[in-house]
Amino acid sequence: MWEHGGNVGAAARAPTVHTNTEYYRLDTIGSTIGADLRDARTLRELELAVMSRDLGALIMPRDAE
Question: How many domains, in total, are found in the chain?
Answer without folding.
Answer: 1
